[in-house]
Amino acid sequence: MEQFYPFPESALRASLGRYPGARELIWTQEEPQNMGGWWYIESRLEQLMKNCERPRYVGRTASASPATGSYTSHQLEQAKLIQEALQLEERPQVVATDKVPKMGTDG
């Protein structure tokens, strides 16, 4: 979704209407929770899909910074975000902090 205002209600209803049996709606964004569209869109999505549970957020946690500052950390976060959003089968993963590079390096 690229445009929030004016809210594209009819276009979203048409798109989401193709999934009448859907019981879950997942909102995914790359930005931290407090920087993307989640807070604006959550209640609007809830109104569009009455048969679904409350929309679920998948993305980075709220943060004062839009990025981790480390390419390696970003890649680990991104992989986890995509895996959760697509509900891919759980695979053993290294905890992000185990692979975070030392300050001043990026790998």
Write a concise keyword list for the protein shown above.
2 strands; globular; alpha+beta; two-stranded parallel sheet; 3 helices; about 110 residues; about 30% helix
Brief characterization of the structure:
The chain has 107 residues and is α+β, with helices and mostly antiparallel strands.
Q: What can you tell me about this protein's structure?
A:
The protein is α+β, with helices and mostly antiparallel strands and 107 residues long. It contains 3 helices and 2 strands, in the order αβαβα. The chain has a two-stranded parallel ribbon with strand order 1-2. Strand 1, helix 2 (38-48) and strand 2 (56-60) form a beta-alpha-beta unit. It starts with 8 loop residues before the first helix and ends in a 22-residue tail after the last helix. Mean pLDDT is 80; it is low at 91-98.
